[in-house]
Amino acid sequence: MNVSRRIPLGLVGGGPRSLIGGVHRAAAALSERFELKGGAFGTDVSRNRAHARALGLDPERAYAGLDEMLAAESRLAEGERIEVLAVLTPNHLHYPMVLRALESGLHVICEKPFTMTASEALELERRARDGGRKVCIAHTYTGYPMVRQMRAMIAAGEIGALQKIDAQYYQGWINAAMHDAAMRQSIWRLDPARSGPSCCYGDIGVHAFNLAEYTTGLRIARVLADLDTFRPDNALDVDGTTLLRTACGVHGVLRASQIATGEENGVQIAVYGSRGALKWSHETPAILTHLREDAPRQVFTPGQRFNAELARTASQLPPGHPQGLAEAMANLYRGFADAIHGVPGAEERFPGIEAGVRGMRFIEATLASSRAGQTWMEISA
Amino acid sequence: MNVSRRIPLGLVGGGPRSLIGGVHRAAAALSERFELKGGAFGTDVSRNRAHARALGLDPERAYAGLDEMLAAESRLAEGERIEVLAVLTPNHLHYPMVLRALESGLHVICEKPFTMTASEALELERRARDGGRKVCIAHTYTGYPMVRQMRAMIAAGEIGALQKIDAQYYQGWINAAMHDAAMRQSIWRLDPARSGPSCCYGDIGVHAFNLAEYTTGLRIARVLADLDTFRPDNALDVDGTTLLRTACGVHGVLRASQIATGEENGVQIAVYGSRGALKWSHETPAILTHLREDAPRQVFTPGQRFNAELARTASQLPPGHPQGLAEAMANLYRGFADAIHGVPGAEERFPGIEAGVRGMRFIEATLASSRAGQTWMEISA
Amino acid sequence: MNVSRRIPLGLVGGGPRSLIGGVHRAAAALSERFELKGGAFGTDVSRNRAHARALGLDPERAYAGLDEMLAAESRLAEGERIEVLAVLTPNHLHYPMVLRALESGLHVICEKPFTMTASEALELERRARDGGRKVCIAHTYTGYPMVRQMRAMIAAGEIGALQKIDAQYYQGWINAAMHDAAMRQSIWRLDPARSGPSCCYGDIGVHAFNLAEYTTGLRIARVLADLDTFRPDNALDVDGTTLLRTACGVHGVLRASQIATGEENGVQIAVYGSRGALKWSHETPAILTHLREDAPRQVFTPGQRFNAELARTASQLPPGHPQGLAEAMANLYRGFADAIHGVPGAEERFPGIEAGVRGMRFIEATLASSRAGQTWMEISA
Amino acid sequence: MNVSRRIPLGLVGGGPRSLIGGVHRAAAALSERFELKGGAFGTDVSRNRAHARALGLDPERAYAGLDEMLAAESRLAEGERIEVLAVLTPNHLHYPMVLRALESGLHVICEKPFTMTASEALELERRARDGGRKVCIAHTYTGYPMVRQMRAMIAAGEIGALQKIDAQYYQGWINAAMHDAAMRQSIWRLDPARSGPSCCYGDIGVHAFNLAEYTTGLRIARVLADLDTFRPDNALDVDGTTLLRTACGVHGVLRASQIATGEENGVQIAVYGSRGALKWSHETPAILTHLREDAPRQVFTPGQRFNAELARTASQLPPGHPQGLAEAMANLYRGFADAIHGVPGAEERFPGIEAGVRGMRFIEATLASSRAGQTWMEISA
């Protein structure tokens, strides 16, 4: 096992104007564990070639589509051909593409929401397990050192028994489209055919859900959701508050919005226990606040010797040197590479396919609850 | 009309160990509009006299109880006898005491929750109206300059049409009692006989509700609440999340907790509109953040010339000089004094009896919703 | 000794448009230890009477000037006549007025800078000592609970041996006048005849100096100052940086400005020791940050049981309830009242006349250093 | 001109335990403009080979030293052989290595401080100019979008004529060594033979100086410095405050420390002008605060359409997605690549060799000033 070997990586999606494409390329590079070899970035092969050249890749490995890529790569030598596929396409393509990649024996990194339905996610989980392939869901926020510190401290009992969860993901970027019908047409996330049954909860609510389960180690068992499509001529939710109840009875609330005008990327998680609390906000990702019942609050920062191992291994720089979203994603890539190499403990350092399944179950339960007039819905385990 | 005349004030409740007593005395003094003349601070008349002496009051005006006070004061000369009574006793005494005060022709300042039931509040509203007396509910947060700036900016359309409300009031002080049965017995707010039907929502949730209505100028029409008593042997709510819907269909959420361990007095309000948003947090009361759709966020602070008049009149100091809770309460006292003197516009500068009625309706609807298994309940107008 | 007796207080200065007058009235009232009885608020006796009436005072005790006030009050009964005089006039009047008050047997509260020269301050110190009278200098920032917590923690060795001091006081309010000659004429602080030899350092630099000495318990022994009058036609400093050296050799820096455009009232103090550091900023006065060498930083807030006694006695409210400038000043008033009553330990709770002497020595050394071309100047002990 | 061509890059220094090595590799990768090809990472060739393998490089291109690398690379084909050398070794090796690289026709990226003396820096400047080679000094902080926004806004006159500069760089990491003689021996930055004449000012003070000149566009003309070696047995400065004066007479202050215990990487810059001010702190790098004379303060964040072009081109992500130190460095790498390709305007996007010369002049003037007992020293233009 050579854990520092660069694993050949391919992309589907992530063309020149794709923001998420840049994040995944940056994460792969920063991880120093993957080497991007090629991709089917878009549907125009000549633009794909130009993109490959701009990225310093062999333009022969810019493909017209996934099938062509899988076929061509399979003919390359081991060590050269791609072993991992990152799926960055619109949501409706995740399921068929991940399925094809797994069938071709690849490991997969997939953007969220994982699929269009929970049953698709379960099907992919079965396929991955049967084929011995690994899947990483791009819940990037779990890659921040202070989110990992939070998980480790909760697991170690630092705040006692949990008694309250408060998760938030507020953005304002869809607001303008809500007030401009023409702009509304141009946003694929508002189109059920490409986005699936949810916009806000599929895009960002599911991140907040994942963060709640990752940091607490608890399972959300029931939800009661109040979603808002905001406009009569808008099909998908752009805002919604969800009441949460864990299997062990802890109350919680999850707030997500894409019409929180002026909010940039307001991800927050607060967890309260019998002895204290932990709070993290994405706007200041290097700060983890630890409220204590009978002592001054503490502020944890990345890069400190006294941090938990799960946080220490997520920091590449000394304290006080900011690391951002790409570094958080790179931590997922590192964990995923380690898992592929069989390094013990790696599974805690990236969101696996189970996170994808959980996310889809959450989205479905949320939509069902809201549609039923805000009633409690179970999330199957 | 001499608006600077010091109005004689009496207290019921607010003994030597009462925190809220100190806040009301400070507010009255800071307002420079009232003069504390006497009170029935507790039930022990000799201790009441000692307290009066410690406060520099005439010990003859320390009374054994409200009835004695009202009788004795009525025999004093006009200008000397109390004209306003501040009611600072436990909740179950608010209704009978406010009623007696109104019957005696006094104006009343009353702590929240106003009464035990909405019907009591309505009864007092009728009595006050019939007798031409004024009532101020101690929703202190509406006295902060930046909360008033928020109200003024929303009213002026600065953030466009409203589309989302998010109110919070998180404290941790009851947490220790939840984990210590003996301590639990000692807290009157957990005793239904004195506290009424709610602990968390009666004590603090109602503040967040008032803040939402005061800043937005909207009416919350429906609620769906998920309250938590946390312990089987605890009768009253200590935590709860409530979904909100305004009469005009705006979605919102209100989160309140007394078991948010480590939180001190975390009052927050955020309101999102079609063109921007306004956010305020009690931990940094001198900051009002204005998010804008297409421009850098702005930060308003008290004492600036360019602030709205409603905020300017709530600041007694130049920018950068902190003012706190007592100053916020003093702004209510000033507004109330002005209202008594008939100054136009004064009604916007203190929460009137209608706020008391609204609050009780909200508490009742919230409790009913939660009891019914988290279903929507109307708040009558 | 009746420590809760309200001590009769008189004001000189502090008329209807005076900001500092309002702060002192508020502090006296909040302290619940003083009762304002009268004053020579300005030079127009009929306006003084109107002001007295507006404040609920006996208009007979509004005087045309200090001499008249001292004479008239001396004829009143003990317990009724003023025992303490608060001197709130422009700087050049401090020395003669404090002198007259001491000669009349009064205790004195005086605004800063204490006098026009250090020798005047020394003379007053001698007079006060000889007459057994007490003097409080209005260094309000030492009244904030978290400043007191900082002093107590440093004294207790919490950050080890001190090795670096960084004090700041940045304001922007004089900037406009620097760019508008007419406005410049209207500001008495820029007039040497009324302001004395310094504007910026007399008004605010001396606060930062006092804060450095109060929190550290060290004496600044030498300074090297670089002051700036900014305009050729402006006589007094409006900005300046000063290098500090304590008697024991600790390096430090003090930065003060009134042309830090846009700054409101940016007072900050940071002290670094061998084991940690403490930092406080007036913009968030309820936060004291404790940096530690090998542990997460801690955040202290007022009102907590575990705070030092010096901080606990400066908080009248539970954690999370903001207290502001007037409350800080009230803490000085309480300490001063206790000192008058002979309560042990009271001297640590207000800046005594020695602080006034130290401040004048600092201002003189600073001006001399800057005038000599930025060379080191000693501050006599 | 193919501006997206990946420029072959070599490293000298930056071995497996080097933090700065990781930052430069990350920056090169994130820039998508360079491709790391090889290096002389340390002095042990077999460890260098292992490091190359771990980085996915051809181990043949891991060299025993710079001379060997330059010789071997020169024999490779154009397009394959390195064109740019990043010099990451201890300070004393910068001059000879940069000289050799320039002589070999390479462009150079060099860590700061650029050299041991200003005359060395001038010599390299002459060589680079004569040879038509470009040099980038790793003043990483100028790569943050909000630092660039600050420069652009000042240049555009947004805060008017400048009147005050306040720069800070506070760290605490050397504190422990100051209190532990054995640890002191192990830190090369404290060894004059390797570090040069300065520790604190060579390592971090020079960053603050560069930031002051980059953001303001002004030249610091004179300094008066008060440096502190803290221990009699410690040769180099670990702390120091410097008074600044620009050529046009603006006053300023620069504070740097490595014994500010508990500070992580506290870089700050504040610039005050006649109409407003701009403030930036590295702890929250995505926030630029704009204080305005007569309007609410504004907060700029990266990724917004309305930002200045110099800032927009430094953001690769939408608003609210944190970017860190490596991304800032990558912005320097991008600017440097563009400059090599001759893209107009590129020179504003990385600190050129002139910044290296200015930095050395500043360090020398600072040391001379402090040594002479804190007197003013000129910085030659």
Protein described:
The structure is a homotetramer of 381-residue chains. The first copy, chain A, is α/β, with parallel strands linked by helices and 381 residues long. Helices cover 36% and strands 22% of the residues of chain A. In chain A, the strands form two sheets. Chain A has a nine-stranded mixed beta sheet. In chain A, strands 2-1-3-4-5 form a five-stranded parallel beta sheet, with helices on both faces. In chain A, helix 1 crosses helix 12. Chain A starts with 6 loop residues before the first strand and ends with a strand. The mean pLDDT of chain A is 97. The interface between A and D is large, with 40 and 40 residues. Strand 13 of chain B pairs antiparallel with strand 13 of chain D.
Primary descriptors:
homotetramer; about 375 residues; alpha/beta; Rossmann fold; Dihydrodipicolinate Reductase, domain 2; 2 domains; nine-stranded mixed sheet; about 20% strand
Task: Write a brief structural summary.
Chain A has 381 residues and is α/β, with parallel strands linked by helices. Chain A folds into 2 domains: 7-140, Rossmann fold (3-Layer(aba) Sandwich), CATH 3.40.50; 146-315 and 354-371, Dihydrodipicolinate Reductase, domain 2 (2-Layer Sandwich). The first copy, chain A, is 36% helix and 22% strand.
